[in-house]
Amino acid sequence: MSDADTVSALDALLPQTQCRQCGYPGCLAYARAMARGSADINRCPPGGESVAADLAGRLALPVQPIDRSCGPGRPFTLARIDESRCIGCVACIRACPVDAIIGARGRMHTVVESECTGCELCVPACPVDCIELVPMPFPGKGGEGRGEDPDAFLRAWMAERAPRARARFERRAARRASRRKTLRGREADALQGAERAAVVAAAVARVRERRRAAGRGRR
């Protein structure tokens, strides 16, 4: 199996919450680190022991208990915004890794609950503490409540929500990369423009100096 295939296989085993509890900026980055051998397989609290066991099996490593220093494990939660207190600052929108919060600057924001991964990254980003975490309904059509079996919850999440979360994370990452490329292009254009202006200014200064020198020579 190629390195790329290994990364893809490991990423497919992760719950795609994109919560960064593992210490990496997303599930794919964590998968790459595991494939390189620079990250342990027990750093995904949302995935719990079952995901850690799957990762260990994929890499032919001993099973390890979840490293609880990475953060709390299941159950999953989702974010809700107290819209009466929201100031429309867009901080939570910027923080959400899967574009599950909608709104505009100066306008009320709201969480698209069917797309929220419960990553909790929006909570510390909110300057007015108007975001709370609530239990996540059991995934699936008509799913009510959380269910008593956390492994069943995780399996349902992986089947229904994880692929969508991955796709939304990738689209956001691609959009941000495109925006950075555009900004770099503008900065380069501005720099080139400044450099051209400096070259022209230097040439004009040389011409003027030659003219002044010629004028002094005729006296």
Short note summarizing the structure:
This protein has helices at residues 3-13, 27-36, 48-59, 91-95, 122-125, 150-160, 162-218, and strands spanning 77-81, 101-102, 110-111, 131-135. By secondary structure, the protein is mainly alpha-helical.
Question: Please, how many domains?
Answer: 2
Strand count, sense and barrel status of the largest sheet are: 2 strands, antiparallel
CATH hierarchy, class of the largest domain: Alpha Beta
Q: Give the uncertain stretches in residue-range form.
A: none
Number of helices: 7
The CATH topology of the largest domain comes to Alpha-Beta Plaits
Helix fraction, binned, reads 40-55%
Distance between the termini: 85 Å
The main sheet orders its strands as 1-4
CATH architecture of the largest domain: 2-Layer Sandwich
The backbone outline, from C-alpha atoms, is elongated
The overall pLDDT average reads 87
Please name the defining characteristics of this protein.
two-stranded antiparallel ribbon, mainly alpha, 3-methyladenine DNA Glycosylase II, Chain A, domain 3, Alpha-Beta Plaits, single chain, 2 domains, 219 residues
Describe the structure.
The protein is mostly helical and 219 residues long. It folds into 2 domains: 3-70, Electron transport complex subunit B, putative Fe-S cluster (3-methyladenine DNA Glycosylase II, Chain A, domain 3), CATH 1.10.15; 77-170, 2-Layer Sandwich (Alpha-Beta Plaits), CATH 3.30.70. Helix content is 50%, strand content 6%. It has 7 helices and 4 strands; from the N terminus they run αααβαββαβαα. The chain has helices at residues 3-13, 27-36, 48-59, 91-95, 122-125, 150-160, 162-218, and strands at residues 77-81, 101-102, 110-111, 131-135. The strands form 2 sheets. It has a two-stranded antiparallel ribbon. A two-stranded antiparallel ribbon has the order 2-3. A hairpin with a 7-residue loop joins strand 2 (101-102) and strand 3 (110-111). Helix 1 (3-13) crosses helix 2. The N and C termini lie far apart (85 Å).
